[in-house]
Amino acid sequence: MSGRVTIDRPPDDSSGGPGASDVPGSTGGPGGRPLSAEEESGARTGRGAGDGGWDDDSVPPADWGRREAAGVAVPWAFVAVIVVLLAGRWVLAPYLTSPALQTWATIFVAICVQALPFLVFGVALSAAIAAFVPASFWTRALPRRPAVAVPVAGVAGAVLPGCECASVPVASGLMARGVTPAAALAFLLASPAINPIVLVATAVAFPNEPMMVVGRFAASLAVAVLAGWIWLRFGKAGWLRNRPHAHEGESKLAVFAAAMRHDLLHAGGFLMVGGLAAATLNVVVPREWLDSVAGIPWLSILVLALLAVLLSICSEADAFVAASLNTFSPTAQLAFLVVGPMVDLKLIALQIGTFGRSFAVRFVPLTFGLAVLVSAVVGWVLL
Amino acid sequence: MSQSLVLMLLGGTVLRISAFSTTYLNYVKPGFRPFLIAAGAVLVVLGVVGLIRDWRRPADTTASTATSTASTSDSVSTSAPASASDSASASAPASTSGSAAASVSASASASGPGSHAGHGGHDHSHVPQVAWLLCLPVFALFLISPPALGSYAAARVDTAPPPPAASEAVAYQPLPADRATDMTVGEFIGRAWGDKNKTLTGRQVRLTGFVVPAKKKNQWYVTRMQLACCAADAFPLKVTVRGANQPPADTWVEVTGTWIPPKSDNVPLGTVPPEISAISVDPIQAPSEPYE
Known about the structure:
The structure holds 2 protein chains of 2 kinds. By secondary structure, chain A is mostly helical. Chain A folds into 2 domains: 1-60, no CATH class; 101-382, no CATH class. Chain A has helices at residues 2-8, 37-45, 47-51, 62-67, 69-72, 76-91, 99-132, 135-141, 146-156, 164-176, 181-194, 196-205, 210-234, 252-284, 288-291, 297-311, 318-324, 330-339, 345-355, 357-382. Chain B is of the alpha/beta class. Among the domains of chain B are: 1-56; 155-283, CATH 2.40.50.140. Chain B has 8 helices and 6 strands; from the N terminus they run αααααααβαβββββ. In chain B, a hairpin with a 5-residue loop joins β2 (204-213) and β3 (219-226). In chain B, α1 (2-18) runs antiparallel to α2 (33-56). The longest helix of chain B has 24 residues, at 33-56. Chain B starts with a helix and ends in a 9-residue tail after the last strand. Chains A and B meet through α3, α4, α5, α6 and α7 of A and α1, α2, α4, α6 and α7 of B.
């Protein structure tokens, strides 16, 4: 058994493990203790067998670790990524030319490229809140009673110029600084829909329907405040995943950079999940399906609300898409505009990544239901 | 360390398509360039800062792989916490920042999982699994190098473009009679549908777009995609070309011709694309700015 193991060992294995020595037969622990066949086969066949045993001893000599220092820092997974990239460019790329795949990739990259600056901006703002704004500021700026703080935070959403990708990390940063979660959530829902840039875009897209802008503002703010209040009344703190708190004793810049990296890696990764789903649905779902339901009032509202979830269009652009869906009633278009910035695939993915799954499974249906109801009522009154 | 490299890879790719080429025009509007460059630069800077921090504090990671029998990526990551305790003592002199600071810092490369126990089960030492997805757009850009949306995407949306708002109906200038006028597809459609003065009648225009086959015989569409924000909300603007053979799909062409007024007024606007009677069709290079 022992001899077989020695013979089987590939020659280059000597660099890999401490048990592997250049000279066959001289295998032994650092203390000169000869390895039994059993121990050695454990070392050969898998780490699981070796973990509990000699692995944790001083088997890797101190100098071995130092010698490997440069090699250890090599992030192998990243190296694999680069290798696949370079090799794939020559080997795979000539085959990846199907129009459907290319269209899908174009839309996926477009969603990512378009959302990335907003995400970076939002993450930077959130990190700045975490690093530079003292927690006491928020307790002074917001009303003490949470029920009052919710609408104030909702209206304050008007000052954040950006789309929904920016608002998630900012809301998370606010919570980390002691803002009532319900108020931060009202801000999260309101800011992508009622900021000036989005309202101007809506006015441009609906030049003959100024009430569309009013309706969008009113309905979005109402949904945000209602959702905040409902969360305040029924929400449990345990549903929200806690953010790592800023560490004391570090420079503010270090906290800022660390918070940005953390948020970018998490929120960015989940943004990609949302982008994948949205691009796939964008390519797979034929638009003709939509026109067949445009005439039925209630169904059309639901269908456009669902479409807003699936398409995941940035809130700065969704008004133009809504305007192009002109076979639908204005109320259904309003539902598209109200739901889109609050619930969509990339946003759901971002919220799961930022606040945790048990939060998202409750908050997303709540917001969606409220948004559909409120926009139906507002559309019925105003449009 | 990997997380810094992932950020740098993504940031570098964003810079590559925005600052050093016009590839970004296939995906977003031209005005988006400064934001893309800024975002790419921020990502690269964050990555570099992280790399420098990791470089200065290599002690905690260095000895960890020595325990692995084969230098595979997963053995690197799984063995790090197990050996952190004994390796810290072995290489303490090399640590510049001290073990206390290293274990507290969010970007410490191998602080043990226990230091952030309340944080969803993952520690800061390695790339969170989901962050590897940040490489996906890089893969898509390198391997597929997705082109601007073409005939496949345009053909999927079969409905004609929306009719222009009535208020635009008066805004058009008369066209010169002696030469062909260059015109965007969007303007042509606007003039065809929303122009009280019918300024298109009898005038030669030149449209630039790509070829989309039509279902009916003896006609095809010269098409341009219109963006509101990014390619995900692109909408095809189509003009039916008659009197010319169809070039292969996706060929970029300049179509010179005259507008064919609709034969009856009964067809509601916006259901059928306007038509052009082609005098000449010239293949051209794809423009760097593919959308309208």
